[in-house]
């Protein structure tokens, strides 16, 4: 089921809807990370929003609150090799599927940000709904976007120690001018997505 971004969103009647979102489709390096969140009645932190518009320290604070009050939450990812094998969209769907399956509670409905549905395991019987800009409309999806973003940033920061010189602790793998200069100078490290055009071009120049 897909709902347009301008449609009026009815409240789902089920008792355990889960919000799902991802972070990290655009970077040249690192995993794509997804999160799933189930809130109990009245247990929604104040100030939830699309993670991209929140300052880092606000995301960190909200992530801690979400983990503390959620009925269930989980984070999962697809690594660069899976991204290269599947493509970034399908790898994002795989990460979302893994996040839902790792939830400590079983949802009866899943609300996904965007317009593409992940394939859920056959043993997980629930309805799935896509909501364009759901991370700005549905608290559980907003919470999932925050957990996914915070988790991915935390994964990328130590990569600067492991692979120094790229600036992963600053740009988190996104194609900033600083990052593109470092990629041109150093070439891709093992955590790069080799199917992405700037990385493939760098490999081609070096070959």
Strand order of the largest sheet: 1-6-5-2-3-4
Helix percent reads 25-40%
Question: Based on helices, strands and strand pairing, what is the structural class?
Answer: alpha/beta
- The overall pLDDT average reads 90
In CATH, the topology of the largest domain is named: Nucleotidyltransferase, domain 5
How much strand content do the residues show? 15-25%
Q: Largest sheet, described in full? A: 6 strands, mixed
CATH superfamily of the largest domain: Ribonuclease H-like superfamily/Ribonuclease H
- What CATH first level of the largest domain would be assigned? Alpha Beta
List segments where confidence is low: pLDDT < 50 over at least 5 consecutive residues.
1-13
So, CATH architecture of the largest domain? 2-Layer Sandwich
> Tell me, what's the shape?
globular
Strand element count: 6
The topology string of helices and strands comes to: EEEHEHHEEHHHHH
Number of domains: 2
Number of helices: 8
The N- to C-terminal Cα distance equals 46 Å
- Seen as an oligomer or otherwise, the chain set is single chain
Comma- or semicolon-separated keywords:
207 residues; alpha/beta; Nucleotidyltransferase, domain 5; 6-stranded mixed beta sheet; globular; disordered N terminus
């Amino acid at each position: 089921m897909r709902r347009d971004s301008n449609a009026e969103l009815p409240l789902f009647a089920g008792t355990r809807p889960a919000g799902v979102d991802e972070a990290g489709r655009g970077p040249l390096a690192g995993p794509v990370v997804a999160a799933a969140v189930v809130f109990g009645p009245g247990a929604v932190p104040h100030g939830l929003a699309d993670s991209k518009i929140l300052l880092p320290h606000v995301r960190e604070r909200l992530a801690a609150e979400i983990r503390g009050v959620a009925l269930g939450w989980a984070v999962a990812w697809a690594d660069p090799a899976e991204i290269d094998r599947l493509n970034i969209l399908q790898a994002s769907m795989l990460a979302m599927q893994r996040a839902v399956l790792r939830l400590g509670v079983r949802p009866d409905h899943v609300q996904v940000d965007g317009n593409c549905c992940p394939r859920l395991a056959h043993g997980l019987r629930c309805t799935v709904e896509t909501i364009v800009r759901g991370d700005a409309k549905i608290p559980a999806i907003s919470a999932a976007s925050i957990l996914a973003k915070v988790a991915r940033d935390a994964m990328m920061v130590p990569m600067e120690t492991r692979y120094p010189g790229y600036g992963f602790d600053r740009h988190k793998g996104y194609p900033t001018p600083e990052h593109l200069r470092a990629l041109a100078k150093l070439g891709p490290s093992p955590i790069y997505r080799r199917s992405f055009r700037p990385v493939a071009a760098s490999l081609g120049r070096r070959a």
